[in-house]
Amino acid sequence: MQTMTPSRFRPILVVAILGLVTVAAAVTPAQAQRDQFEDVTDVVLVEVPVQVLRDDEPVRGLTAADFEIFDGRKKRDLVGFEVIDLRMVEGETEGAVTDLPIAARRHFLLLFDLSFSDPTAVVKAREAAAELVLNDLHPSDLVGVATYSQARGPNLVLGFTSDRRQVEAAIADLGFANPQQSTSDPLGLVVSDLGDSPLGVGSGGLSGINPEAEIREQLKDLSILSSRSAREEEQAQVTALSSSLSQIAALLDSVAGRKHVVYLSEGFDADIVLGTGGTTVEQQERIQDINDASASGRYWEVDSEERFGSTATLNVLGNMLEAFKRSDCVIQAVDIGGLRAGGEVQGSGAESGSRAEGQDGLFMMANETGGEMYRNFNDLGDAMEEMLQRTSVTYVLAFQPQDVKFDGKFNRIRVEVKNQPRGTRVVHRPGYYSPKRYEDLTGLEKRLRTAEAIVGGDEGGVLGTSVLAASVPVAGQKAYVAVLVEIDGKDLLAGHKGAVVPLELYAYALDRKGVVKDFFSQPLGLDRGQAEEALRQTGFKFWGHFDLDPGDYVVRVMARNSETGLSGLSSVPVRVPEYDASEIALLPPLFPEAPGKWLMGREQTEEQRQVPYPFLLNGQPVIPAARPQLARGGTAQMFLQGYSLAEGVTVASRVLGPDGSAVEGGAIEVSQRTRAGAADQLLATFLTGGLAPGEYTLEVTVADAESGESRVSRIPIVVGG
Fold first, then answer.
1. Other C-beta atoms within 10 Å of 250: how many?
2. Residue 508 and residue 485: Cα distance in Å, rounded?
3. Which of 283-287, 353-357, 635-639 has the highest mean pLDDT?
């Protein structure tokens, strides 16, 4: 096996964004949703988030029968419908919040304009933005952070996440932190230390004693407001801004749901684009001078672009705003000039005029995309209260287009609501882009698709992937959570032509709020000549780990063949108990496998954690199966491993079908209790009698007869023919 340079933290920064147009591996809606992130098949599922408003209030209580959707001129049948009312979600559990469909969750991109803003205003705007995120957004809202500067272009500091601590860290340093201090998350979901200590907006990852002064100093070189430029240069600056924001709009098209781009800036002079508007005394005098020169034949004194605007700049700006609309992005423009220190908000003279001109540009960007402009607001939460209320109810409609061409072209859609009174307004994106085939995607787009699958959590894919996660105690340290990933070898080889099979693995542990608590990534190159036989027999099995505190988590693992684009995602829950408090712990049912069955690989880190091997049976190390393959009508050796199990525990089991209901057949017979280090083990046999060939879930419950305390664990199993 040939291995590419692996590491736990790869130095790749990319925004985590989510796809609206999803591609599925089968015709049925259920399977289409399960495999929605694949890029290699021919059935497309389009999800359209819709808000219905009356008197600027959300309309509740609508059903799928109330909607009609048109793909171009053709009416399409709905194959999916979901309603998300954030008012109702308030009372749900944290886990229910993170389980909301991605397309229905609101997305806010905090976009800091570092060039068309005074450095002091940017520093203050960080505080206002942090207040909005921490105090006013719903827990289910996803937030990303980006910056723009003429010198550096667009920079996506943090991908969309519900992790407020990471958002706060990204706002704090705006990407100015020393790269060596970064966690180097390859999917851009983590930008700061994964510890639990609180962050202040003034700290971030900056190393100086006075971080606000440090970031202000760095911003000085990026701001273009400090000096007046020639008109041609100002037009070039607006053109550069528009081109960069168009890139952001194109990336955001992959994000499911409506995106609110909170654009924090002092804006640009709209007259640069539209010409002298005559709204001030000075502008009216300048217009009169131009008219007099023209009437007197002094044409060399007449600048047509000054009077009527720059057509070229206007076209670039217009294309940028159209790109935002087509990507279902609304620009909420915030004039941060009022956040400068020293009370300059109510200033007069050149400063006041400059700010008024900037507000015209901000108003144009917001108005053209359906957003609002907020003037001089220190409390963005209060300013945006009405907008947040209007977007609190989302209806997600899903349909399947016909005769899809994988060409990336734009397709218009229209949504209508039946039998509603006059004045009812329907808000939805104007259309969708046809998907591209995997080989036509850029490197950045490919990485974004991977991040999309991890954040969205929709299991499935063409590449068969299974995961087993088991927590074991380590004295005086965080628990060691072993993660075993199994990848079907035939799927991994499907369509592959090269001598080396390039495999990418991404694994994340998220708590119930969607906060990333640990992660690892591993790029691997499998020598086909040496590995193909083993891959075709079973596949590739990988061993990694997380370091986690007590709590409940979901482990999400994505595997991808980076040449063919075939991928698969698997999610499993894992509980890390309070081991020191003698809390009962139970690992998933463990089915040992014969040595050499899989081609094996293991996580490589700079600091390999040394812990006792967690899986011993009769004193010998064994490797358990993540998805046991069992013979019909046969038996399989297995064992239950737990901690702090009482002497009088009882064991009960049942087998669940694909729909989660119990089925007849299958049973566990416990034969012996033993110890393996600190672990209690119940050796057992699983009998598959009565189970038809198919996929199931084995559920085991261990209970203390005296206290009544119990623990449940599960594992997927496959019964062969």
1. 15
2. 12
3. 635-639
Q: Please answer whether residues 504 and 663 qualify as being in contact, where contact means their C-beta atoms are separated by less than 8 angstroms.
A: no
HSE value, Cβ hemisphere, 13 Å, CA-based, for 526: 30
Please choose, from the candidates 455, 575, 431, 580, the residue with its C-alpha nearest in 3D space to the C-alpha of residue 506: 455
Interatomic CA distance for residues 533 and 539, integer angstroms: 9
Residue 210 pLDDT > 60, yes or no?
Answer: no
Domain map (residue ranges) of the chain: 21-104+391-440, 107-275+310-389, 276-305, 459-605, 628-721
Side-chain-facing half-sphere of 133: CA atoms under 13 Å: 30
How far from each other are the two terminal CA atoms of the chain, in whole angstroms? Answer: 33
Q: What is the dihedral of CA 345, 350, 354, 356, to 10 degrees?
A: 60
Q: Which of 681, 436, 432, 468 is nearest to 573 (CA)?
A: 468
For residue 79, which amino acid is it?
V
Residue 196 has pLDDT above 70, yes or no: no
> Distance between CA atoms of 339 and 378, rounded to whole angstroms?
7
Give pLDDT tens digits for 225-263.
654 456 677 788 888 999 999 989 988 887 777 899 999
- φ, ψ of residue 686 in degrees (nearest 5): -105, 125
3-state secondary structure of 681: strand
pLDDT at residue 181 in the model: 44
pTM strictly above 0.90: no
User: How open is the CA angle 364-365-370, to the nearest 5 degrees?
Assistant: 100
Give the containing element (helix H, strand E) for 365.
helix 349-368
Instruction: For residues 212 and 195, give the distance between their C-alpha atoms in angstroms, rounded to a whole number.
Output: 23
Q: Mean pLDDT across the stretch 76-93?
A: 80
Pairing of strands 585-586, 567-576: unpaired
Q: What pLDDT score was predicted for residue 667?
A: 93
CATH class in words for 459-605: mainly beta
Give the tens place of pLDDT for each residue, 257-268.
Answer: 789 999 999 988
CATH for 107-275+310-389, among 3.30.565.10, 3.40.50.1100, 3.40.50.300, 3.40.50.410? 3.40.50.410
Separation in Å, CA 479 to CA 106, 242, 465, 712: 34, 49, 25, 19
Of 485, 654, 475, 630, which is closest to residue 571 (Cα–Cα)? 485
**Domain with residues 628-721, CATH architecture:** Sandwich (2.60)
Q: Do 639 and 588 meet the contact criterion of CB atoms below 8 Å apart? A: no
Q: Identify the band that residue 26 occupies on the pLDDT scale cut at 50, 70 and 90.
A: very low
